[in-house]
Design a protein that fits this description.
The chain is mostly helical. It has nine helices and two strands, in the order H-H-H-H-E-H-H-E-H-H-H. The longest helix is centred in the last third of the chain and has 31 residues.
Length: about 230
């Protein structure tokens, strides 16, 4: 028997169905955050990340690409990974943070997130590297930190939002997660598994912040290599 393969139209509908689900869950996460259900909102953001990953994986596997799909995906990402993330962080510390400072940080995050998505539509991913940290991973970091450290000091949350906002529109090269995994040695799986069992919250935080610092680290390494090669 031959393996079942969906028709081109069905492939198009399935891929864009995942995109639509990403958008709808993002809207629900935004509503949940605004009503005080920030834990549900954070879980919703992580679900959006999973839906976006399925969307991209299927699109690449089935070669389902179109101008419509590109724009639809960006609108869904703007809703889920930018606006819903803003809502999560805003209502996370709204009771304890200076309102003006929090509003400015949220506005900066929303603006740079939109710029990041628009720039990606123009430049794409070059040689497995993104220009600036992806909005998908920023949302993952914020959701993971909320779930593992909900009592984090408000000024630290605001500082993190500002840093992530700047990194989204930076020129730092960030590798695709798949590229990072392929370059990891097999023996790393054992200590990582042990760390996740013994201290899951701390391990998630370290992994998240390590990826945040990966872009500046790669940029500095490349710049140093160019200087040394010219010397």
């Amino acid at each position: 028997m031959s393996r079942f393969s969906p028709s081109p139209r069905l492939r198009f509908l399935i891929v864009n169905g995942f995109t639509c689900a990403n958008l709808l869950v993002g809207v629900l996460a935004l509503i949940a955050a605004s009503t005080g259900a920030t834990t549900i909102a954070a879980c919703g953001l992580l679900l959006c990340v999973a839906l976006d990953a399925c969307d991209g994986a299927l699109a690449r596997r089935w070669q389902v690409t179109s101008a419509f799909g590109t724009q639809f995906d960006s609108l869904a990402d703007m809703t889920s990974f930018v606006l819903a993330s803003v809502a999560l962080t805003f209502y996370w510390v709204a009771d304890a943070a200076p309102l003006v400072l929090l509003a400015l940080a949220s506005g900066l995050y929303a603006a740079t997130g939109a710029i990041r998505l628009a720039r990606y539509n123009c430049t794409g991913c070059q040689n497995g590297y993104f220009q600036g940290i992806p909005t998908t991973f920023v949302a993952t970091v914020l959701a993971a930190l909320y779930l593992t450290a909900p009592s984090l000091a408000p000024h630290l949350v605001i500082a993190l939002v500002i840093v992530l906002a700047v990194l989204m529109v930076s020129l730092f090269p960030y590798p695709r997660p798949g590229l990072v995994l392929r370059r990891c040695q097999p023996w790393m799986a054992l200590p990582l598994s042990i760390a996740l069992v013994l201290n899951p919250a701390g391990t998630v935080q370290i992994l998240s912040l390590s990826y945040v610092g990966l872009g500046p680290g790669i940029w500095l390494y490349r710049k140093t290599r160019r200087v040394l090669d010219r010397a």
